[in-house]
Design brief:
about 140 residues; about 20% strand; globular; alpha+beta; 3 helices
């Protein structure tokens, strides 16, 4: 019977060690884990989820970094074009760009950031991170 490395005792201890090492209870600012250096932003295809867009680039969608994208200047810088209109809505598809109208949508409710939402005609902006083969919970610089 095959057991992936991340489900073995050793794999669990490796993850636990990484999480404990990167905690900082004394810092005033929250520590973001995994680090921003392991995350890159990718535009999905129209109607494609972030999970699928990241996986296509051999990366994993990291929902904890959606907050970095959820503002107009960052979206416009990433898209290399101004948004024709900016709207805030609470749905699992945002932040995103509507292809036809070039309207940018920001997430109104941070609890709804999702890697799996997909809707036709909408290009999602996805935070994708690298990972260690056999240990998908950790980025390559997280150990």
């Amino acid at each position: 019977m095959y057991l992936p490395y991340e489900f073995t005792y050793e794999g669990m201890l490796q993850r636990l060690n990484a999480y404990i090492q990167h905690q900082d209870f004394c810092s005033v600012l929250p520590v973001v884990f995994p680090p921003a250096s392991s995350v890159s932003f990718i535009a999905s295809g129209p109607g494609q989820s972030c999970k699928d867009a990241c996986w296509k680039k051999r990366r994993i969608c990291e929902y904890s970094h959606f907050g970095r994208l959820n503002n107009q200047p960052t979206l416009e810088r990433f898209l290399s074009a101004p948004c024709s209109d900016v709207k805030k809505q609470a749905d699992v598809y945002f932040p995103a760009l509507e292809n036809e109208t070039r309207s940018c949508y920001l997430q109104e409710d941070p609890l709804l950031f999702s890697c799996v939402g997909e809707v036709e005609g909408v290009v999602r902006i996805c935070p994708c991170r690298d990972y260690i083969r056999g240990q998908t919970a950790l980025c390559s610089s997280c150990t």
